[in-house]
Amino acid sequence: MSEPLQAEVKSRATRLAYFACGAFLLLLTGAASAQTPVAPATADPDTYPSHTIRYIVPYPPGAFNDTLGRIVSQKLQEAWGVPVVVENRPGGGTLIGTDAVAKSAPDGYTLLGVAFPFGSNPSIYRSLPYDTVKDFTPLIFAGQTQNLLVVRPAMPIHSVKDFVDYARNNPGKVSYGSTGIGSSNHLSMELFKSMTGIDIVHVPYKGSAPMVNDLLGDHIDAAFDNTPNVLPQVNAGKLRALGVSSTARSTLTGSVPTVSEAGVPGYEVTVWFGIVGPAGMRPEIVRKLNSELNAILGTDDVKRRFQDQGVDPVGGSPSQFADHIRSEIQKWAKVVKDANIQPE
């Protein structure tokens, strides 16, 4: 082999060796980076928000949970000039959308609309994919409403006391509907049962509409349901209202007493709605969001839109909402345990 050819071969071998070594080092670097945890993204409070915010609704479109998200989306866009996109991610008893937010970056660009089941699910599900207290940052208690206890008019019942007496005289013969295991109307009646000692039969439905239809058709006897869902039938004389679940009478139902004053002292169920983010959000961003959300809830336009849905705006600080969530978890843990409620 000539000397020029030997030099060319040696040069190529050297280049190949360097290339192989570099490739090997690149592989090592990639493997190391794949195994190294990535620090959660943070946002600069001075420039927040600078791009699109996602608002996750863990329910299908249509009910107030969805309405709240769209009101907040519109108002935040108007105030801050950035897109706020509502994503409906229903399923799994709200667990799918809720878990997605729990695992999102705590940068203030992913928000979650929560409601009554957020506080009852820790007791109903033996193993949640998230921790309701530790994995979220409470932002604001947005609003609350009440459930209305109604019966079909053919029942010889005109008051809460009549209902309790009738159920006690007919154990296991009175039926009540709900919108599913762990829903506010299901747990409203389970709390009522535990406080009165009555024995009535639970009939779960996939939603309020089919439940109310069966109530109107005399297929079930009674139900607790969100006031706006049954008020038209009450006003039309197709259902009879016995009491509201809140501690004060509702302006929507006039003379209908609270369940507590009508014969079950201390009874109270609040159907509530709020907004949270992932755990670990920067305090400055939490304060900015809370301040703007309180301002939104205080506008006449939003108050009217809430009232149209039978919901009262609440507002307040993140710590107040955190306290409410903890109290709800504690309250429903006992009810779920005593009633031996299991997930569907």
Which labels suit this protein?
344 residues; alpha/beta; 5-stranded mixed beta sheet; 44% helix
Total number of helical segments?
Answer: 11
From the spread of the alpha carbons, the general shape counts as globular
Low-confidence stretches: 1-40
- In which range does the helix fraction lie? 40-55%
Strand order of the largest sheet: 2-1-3-10-4-11
Mean pLDDT: 87
What structural category do the secondary elements indicate?
alpha/beta
Distance between the termini: 81 Å
Q: What is the β-strand count?
A: 11
β-strand percent reads 15-25%
- Roughly how many Å is the radius of gyration? 28 Å
Report the major sheet. Answer: 6 strands, mixed
What string gives the helices and strands in order? HEHEHEHEEHEHEHEHEEHHEH
